Amino acid sequence: MTPKSPLEDPETAAFAWARYRRLMRFMFLLTVGVVAIAVALLYTREGDISVHFYIAVALGIGFSMLLTSALMGLVFLSNGTGHDASVDDRFEEERKRDL
């Protein structure tokens, strides 16, 4: 039988998701800052480049940073609440027998 996940408790889940949203807000603000700095540096050093290049750079940096922070935030959420520990390893007995 699989043990209950701590995320099944509404109070624990509300706290964990609030922490995740706070992390994502911070990462969004950091991403906006990094994109602004990158576009400003490109503009001052390169000058006459197509506006499409700036859009591509902003979207590429922004999407990469936000996707990475969202996935890492979910890893932190899962590990920090003990959700990972509640997973049942069905092959653990087989591995012990093979050793």
Descriptive report:
With 99 residues, the chain is mainly α. It has a domain at 25-82. It is 75% helix and 0% strand. It is built from 3 helices and no strands. The chain has helices at 10-46, 51-80, 92-98. The mean pLDDT is 86.
What key attributes describe this structure?
99 residues, 3 helices, elongated, mainly alpha
Give the beta-strand count.
Answer: 0
Runs in which pLDDT lies below 50 for 5 or more consecutive residues are: none
The assigned structural class equals mainly alpha
> How would a crystallographer describe the biggest sheet?
none
- What characteristic shape results from the CA principal axes? elongated
Helix-strand topology string: HHH
Residues in helices, as a percent range:
over 70%
> What's the N-to-C terminus distance?
24 Å
Count of helical regions? 3
* Percentage beta strand: under 5%
Radius of gyration: 21 Å
On the 0 to 100 scale, the average pLDDT is 86
User: Which quaternary structure do these chains form?
Assistant: single chain
Task: Give me the secondary-structure topology.
Elements lengths: L9 H37 L4 H30 L11 H7 L1
Summarize the structure.
The protein contains three helices and no strands. The radius of gyration is 21 Å and the shape is elongated.
